[in-house]
Amino acid sequence: MDVLIHLFVGLHIIGIAALLGGFLTQMKAMGRGTARFVPGMLHGALTMLVTGVALVGLNQADDQSVNNIKIGVKLALLIVILGLVYVKRDDEQVDKRLFGLVGLLTTANIFIAVLWT
Prior knowledge:
Layout lengths: L1 H24 L1 H6 L6 H23 L6 H20 L8 H20 L2
Helix pairs in contact: 1-3, 1-5, 3-4, 4-5
């Protein structure tokens, strides 16, 4: 079971890398007001959602404790991120405040995962 959990943790990290990487590659464009949500950001957010749900299930099946409040906060942030990226994915340019919000929420999600023990 540990190997499976570690596999999904790796996939979860790949998802966050795709989401944050997509954001970081558009930062210069954000300064010009021409940033857009790239497909990798949507795919990264979806990967995070699927692997995160799987990780909660796998950890509970392995009788490990799961902090449901932490998971709920992370899920709420991810749903907001996913909703914004999904709705605005076809726009040629996204308002820089909205784009910055996605980057802020993504970064907050990372710090919640790492610092909330």
